[in-house]
Design a protein that fits this description.
Blueprint (H helix, E strand, L loop, with lengths): L11 H24 L16 H15 L8 H18 L2 H15 L1 H8 L10 H12 L4 H19 L2 H4 L11
Protein name: Twin-arginine translocation pathway signal protein
Organism: Pseudomonas fluvialis
InterPro entries: TAT_signal
Protein backbone atom coordinates (compact mmCIF):
# COMPACT_ATOMS: atom_id res chain seq x y z
CA UNK A 1 0.00 0.00 0.00
CA UNK A 2 1.56 3.30 -1.05
CA UNK A 3 0.91 6.63 0.52
CA UNK A 4 1.54 10.00 -1.02
CA UNK A 5 3.56 12.38 1.14
CA UNK A 6 0.70 14.88 1.08
CA UNK A 7 -1.84 12.36 2.34
CA UNK A 8 0.10 11.49 5.50
CA UNK A 9 -1.38 12.90 8.69
CA UNK A 10 0.58 15.63 10.40
CA UNK A 11 2.70 14.17 13.21
CA UNK A 12 3.03 15.81 16.60
CA UNK A 13 6.60 16.84 15.72
CA UNK A 14 5.44 18.20 12.35
CA UNK A 15 2.63 20.12 14.00
CA UNK A 16 5.01 21.65 16.54
CA UNK A 17 7.52 22.61 13.83
CA UNK A 18 4.79 24.13 11.66
CA UNK A 19 3.33 26.01 14.64
CA UNK A 20 6.74 27.29 15.72
CA UNK A 21 7.66 28.36 12.19
CA UNK A 22 4.29 30.07 11.73
CA UNK A 23 4.52 31.84 15.08
CA UNK A 24 8.03 33.09 14.36
CA UNK A 25 7.04 34.22 10.88
CA UNK A 26 3.95 36.09 12.04
CA UNK A 27 5.71 37.57 15.06
CA UNK A 28 8.53 38.76 12.80
CA UNK A 29 6.04 40.27 10.37
CA UNK A 30 4.24 42.05 13.19
CA UNK A 31 7.48 43.35 14.68
CA UNK A 32 8.70 44.49 11.29
CA UNK A 33 5.43 46.28 10.60
CA UNK A 34 5.54 48.09 13.92
CA UNK A 35 9.21 49.05 13.52
CA UNK A 36 8.68 50.30 9.97
CA UNK A 37 5.87 52.59 11.09
CA UNK A 38 3.15 50.63 9.34
CA UNK A 39 -0.21 50.84 11.03
CA UNK A 40 -1.60 47.36 10.53
CA UNK A 41 -5.02 48.33 11.79
CA UNK A 42 -5.66 51.31 9.51
CA UNK A 43 -7.88 50.33 6.59
CA UNK A 44 -7.33 51.90 3.19
CA UNK A 45 -9.74 54.64 2.15
CA UNK A 46 -13.13 53.14 1.33
CA UNK A 47 -12.39 49.78 3.00
CA UNK A 48 -13.30 48.31 6.37
CA UNK A 49 -10.38 45.90 6.81
CA UNK A 50 -8.03 45.90 3.82
CA UNK A 51 -4.99 48.17 4.07
CA UNK A 52 -2.93 49.78 1.28
CA UNK A 53 -0.30 47.02 1.36
CA UNK A 54 -3.01 44.37 1.18
CA UNK A 55 -4.52 46.11 -1.85
CA UNK A 56 -1.18 46.12 -3.70
CA UNK A 57 -0.75 42.40 -3.10
CA UNK A 58 -4.34 41.51 -3.97
CA UNK A 59 -4.28 43.64 -7.15
CA UNK A 60 -1.34 41.51 -8.30
CA UNK A 61 -2.95 38.22 -7.18
CA UNK A 62 -6.58 38.54 -8.29
CA UNK A 63 -6.00 38.79 -12.07
CA UNK A 64 -3.89 35.62 -11.98
CA UNK A 65 -6.60 33.71 -10.11
CA UNK A 66 -9.42 35.03 -12.30
CA UNK A 67 -7.57 34.43 -15.57
CA UNK A 68 -9.87 32.51 -17.88
CA UNK A 69 -12.97 33.42 -15.90
CA UNK A 70 -12.89 37.13 -16.78
CA UNK A 71 -12.07 38.78 -20.10
CA UNK A 72 -9.01 41.03 -20.13
CA UNK A 73 -11.16 44.09 -20.87
CA UNK A 74 -13.35 43.35 -17.87
CA UNK A 75 -10.47 42.45 -15.51
CA UNK A 76 -9.86 45.90 -13.90
CA UNK A 77 -13.50 46.18 -12.82
CA UNK A 78 -13.55 42.53 -11.71
CA UNK A 79 -10.45 43.12 -9.56
CA UNK A 80 -12.07 46.09 -7.82
CA UNK A 81 -15.34 44.19 -7.27
CA UNK A 82 -13.38 41.26 -5.85
CA UNK A 83 -11.45 43.57 -3.52
CA UNK A 84 -14.77 44.94 -2.26
CA UNK A 85 -16.01 41.37 -1.75
CA UNK A 86 -12.87 40.32 0.11
CA UNK A 87 -13.13 43.36 2.37
CA UNK A 88 -16.83 42.71 3.01
CA UNK A 89 -16.13 39.06 3.83
CA UNK A 90 -13.19 39.90 6.11
CA UNK A 91 -15.35 42.36 8.02
CA UNK A 92 -17.87 39.54 8.57
CA UNK A 93 -15.26 36.96 9.65
CA UNK A 94 -14.80 36.13 13.30
CA UNK A 95 -12.19 38.35 14.98
CA UNK A 96 -9.81 35.37 15.25
CA UNK A 97 -10.09 34.48 11.55
CA UNK A 98 -9.76 38.13 10.52
CA UNK A 99 -6.62 38.45 12.70
CA UNK A 100 -5.04 35.38 11.06
CA UNK A 101 -5.77 36.73 7.60
CA UNK A 102 -4.31 40.14 8.47
CA UNK A 103 -1.20 38.40 9.83
CA UNK A 104 -0.86 36.50 6.55
CA UNK A 105 -1.10 39.80 4.65
CA UNK A 106 1.50 41.31 7.02
CA UNK A 107 3.97 38.50 6.23
CA UNK A 108 3.38 39.04 2.51
CA UNK A 109 3.79 42.83 2.75
CA UNK A 110 7.20 43.03 4.41
CA UNK A 111 10.25 42.72 2.13
CA UNK A 112 12.08 40.83 4.88
CA UNK A 113 9.56 37.98 4.77
CA UNK A 114 8.07 38.46 1.28
CA UNK A 115 11.21 37.65 -0.69
CA UNK A 116 12.21 34.41 1.06
CA UNK A 117 8.62 33.19 1.37
CA UNK A 118 7.32 34.03 -2.08
CA UNK A 119 10.30 34.52 -4.37
CA UNK A 120 8.98 38.00 -5.19
CA UNK A 121 11.79 40.29 -4.08
CA UNK A 122 10.43 43.60 -5.37
CA UNK A 123 7.16 45.27 -4.47
CA UNK A 124 3.87 43.65 -5.42
CA UNK A 125 3.23 46.53 -7.81
CA UNK A 126 6.12 45.31 -9.98
CA UNK A 127 5.21 41.60 -9.80
CA UNK A 128 4.29 40.06 -13.15
CA UNK A 129 1.62 37.43 -13.72
CA UNK A 130 4.48 34.92 -14.06
CA UNK A 131 5.89 36.00 -10.67
CA UNK A 132 2.48 35.51 -9.08
CA UNK A 133 1.98 32.09 -10.70
CA UNK A 134 5.41 30.98 -9.49
CA UNK A 135 4.61 32.22 -5.97
CA UNK A 136 1.28 30.37 -5.93
CA UNK A 137 2.86 27.19 -7.25
CA UNK A 138 5.67 27.49 -4.70
CA UNK A 139 3.19 27.68 -1.82
CA UNK A 140 0.85 25.03 -3.21
CA UNK A 141 3.70 22.52 -3.59
CA UNK A 142 5.62 23.52 -0.45
CA UNK A 143 6.74 20.90 2.03
CA UNK A 144 5.63 23.33 4.75
CA UNK A 145 2.00 22.82 5.69
CA UNK A 146 1.78 26.47 6.76
CA UNK A 147 2.52 27.67 3.23
CA UNK A 148 0.05 25.18 1.75
CA UNK A 149 -2.59 26.49 4.15
CA UNK A 150 -1.69 30.07 3.15
CA UNK A 151 -2.17 29.13 -0.51
CA UNK A 152 -5.55 27.60 0.23
CA UNK A 153 -6.61 30.61 2.29
CA UNK A 154 -5.67 33.08 -0.46
CA UNK A 155 -7.42 31.02 -3.11
CA UNK A 156 -10.57 30.70 -1.00
CA UNK A 157 -10.63 34.42 -0.14
CA UNK A 158 -10.52 35.43 -3.79
CA UNK A 159 -12.90 32.74 -5.07
CA UNK A 160 -15.44 33.44 -2.31
CA UNK A 161 -15.41 37.14 -3.16
CA UNK A 162 -15.59 36.66 -6.94
CA UNK A 163 -18.11 33.83 -7.15
CA UNK A 164 -20.26 35.47 -4.50
CA UNK A 165 -21.26 37.98 -7.18
CA UNK A 166 -24.11 37.31 -9.59
CA UNK A 167 -21.94 38.42 -12.52
CA UNK A 168 -19.61 35.45 -11.99
CA UNK A 169 -22.27 32.75 -11.93
CA UNK A 170 -22.76 32.41 -15.68
CA UNK A 171 -19.10 31.47 -16.21
CA UNK A 172 -19.47 28.39 -14.01
CA UNK A 173 -22.97 27.48 -15.20
CA UNK A 174 -24.80 28.44 -12.03
CA UNK A 175 -28.19 29.95 -12.91
CA UNK A 176 -28.50 31.71 -9.54
CA UNK A 177 -30.70 31.02 -6.55
CA UNK A 178 -34.28 30.02 -7.22
CA UNK A 179 -36.86 32.78 -7.25
CA UNK A 180 -39.07 32.71 -4.17
Amino acid sequence: MSHSPHAAPLSRRGLLKTGLFGSLLLAGAGLGASLSGCSPSTPARGFQVLREGDLAFLRALIPVLLDGAVSSGRMPAAVEQTLDGIDYNLAAFSPAMRKLTVQLFDALALPLSRGPLTGVWGGWEQATAGDMQAFLQRWQNSSLDLLQMGHAALLQLVMLAWYGQAEAWGHCGYPGPPQI
